[in-house]
Design a protein that fits this description.
Layout: E1 20-23, E2 28-31, E3 37-42, H1 53-71, E4 75-82, H2 87-96, H3 100-118, E5 125-128, H4 129-145, E6 149-152, E7 155-158, H5 174-183, E8 200-204, E9 220-222, H6 224-235, E10 240-246, H7 250-265, E11 271-277, E12 280-282, E13 285-286, H8 297-302, H9 307-315, E14 323-324, H10 327-344, H11 353-364, H12 369-386, H13 393-405
Parallel strand pairs: 3-4, 3-10, 4-5, 10-11, 12-14
Antiparallel strand pairs: 1-2, 6-7, 7-8, 8-9, 12-13
Length: 409
């Protein structure tokens, strides 16, 4: 599967700062110190209704992580998956009378278009669940053979008790885990499981549903969590720098994925930091496909909204915050974009050196994009009030906003 084209990232003078970011597993800020190549895995979409603003906010957050790392003169090895076979996708295809493959391919193509328009940097490896199946099957077989998985009526389940570190990603107690498991794709009430929290690794073939050759597992398809583990281990290995996604993935998805990998390898941790973006709401509730309260990037683009304004609307909120999309949020972003473009269109202006460092410091401090935007606002206000004699300043600001915030002025 191919990703989308990369926009050019301007090189800035000097060097950025190491990133301090909130780690869900420890509950506090950690300073990331990758080697020359920073490694990040961000969980991708299930392509049946893309790309709503919740998606956009999440991927915007991890685009900032990449930009901070690039500014420190590191390379970035970014991997993202596409869950192109799963129950929600099949249910939507059946509801709409569409072929599930056609639905997945169409929504993935639309997602690529939206990511390109928003100028989000693409992953180096963009891998679908279906194409990952040849690498998933041996992992499930290994877990089964080592006693970390078991069969139940043809399905294969992972035993959470096989990982001594289970629970350390989310920090939740078993009661909370059980509730969330039921809400987020698990089956804690299934009779015969060793532990209600045990997640499915391999689903035996069901009538009328797609299935693949699973070797000794029989025909079927992979569970959600093992998909990401197989892709991450294949392309990044254990102990990569950041596992990212929305806050609703901390449990069960990231918790289970970490345990799968740790049981498979005997190594710890799966990722050095677990970073989660907040939820975006509309009309008082989290945007979700089940509720249908979605604002789509593609629809805004069709309505003539500049993608740079959409991106500024996202950047106006701290990535970990839960917030609500409104017409006022977008209007403020459109107005800000106009002010910034007017400011950098002048032939000279106030010195921009301090501004570049302000943006760097804000982003290094747990991706504080609102603080970075406020710094650019102050520079633009000075430009409008008294100008300046630095002929290179507008160009420096334009390049810095592009390189660090991904906004083309």
């Amino acid at each position: 599967m191919h990703a989308w084209p990369a926009s050019e990232v301007p090189a800035l003078p000097g060097k950025g700062r190491d990133l301090r970011i909130h780690d869900t597993a420890t509950g506090g800020l950690v300073t990331l110190d990758p080697g020359p190549v920073a490694r990040i895995y961000v969980c991708g979409i299930t392509p049946y209704d893309a790309t709503h603003m919740g998606h956009a906010a999440t991927y915007n957050a991890f685009d900032l992580v990449q930009r901070v790392w690039l500014d420190t003169k590191r390379q970035v090895h970014y991997v993202q998956n596409v869950t192109d076979v799963d129950d929600p996708l099949l249910e939507r295809a059946n509801r709409d009378g569409k072929d599930w493959v056609e639905l997945a391919e169409g929504e993935t193509a639309l997602f690529r278009e939206d990511m390109t328009a928003l100028r989000l940097l693409p992953p180096k490896h963009y891998i679908g669940a279906v194409e990952a199946i040849p690498g998933i099957v041996p992992l499930v077989e290994r877990l089964r053979d080592m006693g970390a998985a078991y069969e139940l009526e043809g399905d294969i389940y992972f035993s959470v008790e096989s990982d001594a570190h289970f629970g350390e990603v989310s920090g939740l107690d078993s009661a909370a885990m059980k509730l969330l498991s039921a809400e987020r794709g698990g089956d804690p009430e299934r009779v015969g499981k060793k532990n209600p929290l045990d997640p499915m690794l391999w689903m035996a073939a069901r009538d009328g549903e797609p299935s693949w050759d699973g070797g000794s597992l029989g025909r079927g398809r992979p569970g959600w969590h093992i998909e990401c583990v197989a892709i991450a281990l294949d392309h990044l290995g254990m102990g990569f720098d950041v596992q990212g996604g929305g806050s609703d993935l901390a449990f069960p998805h990231h918790e289970m994925g970490a345990s799968h990998a740790q049981a498979l390898t005997g190594e710890y941790p799966f990722a050095k930091a677990y970073v989660h973006a907040g939820m975006v709401g509309l009309d008082g509730a989290k945007m979700s496909k089940s509720k249908g309260n979605l604002v789509f990037v593609s629809q805004l683009r069709r309505d003539g909204v500049d993608p740079a304004a959409i991106r500024l609307a996202l950047l106006a909120h701290h990535y970990r915050a839960d917030w609500e999309w409104t017409d006022a949020v977008l209007a403020e972003a459109v107005e800000r974009l106009g002010r910034w473009r007017a400011a950098v269109s002048r032939p000279d202006g106030p010195s921009a050196e301090a501004l570049v460092e302000e943006i760097r410091e804000a982003l290094a401090n747990d991706l504080d994009a609102p603080a970075a935007l406020a710094a650019v606002d102050r520079w633009a206000a000075r430009q409008g009030a008294d100008g300046g004699a630095d002929e290179g300043a507008p160009g420096v600001v334009s390049r810095a906003v592009d390189a660090l915030l991904g906004v083309a002025l």
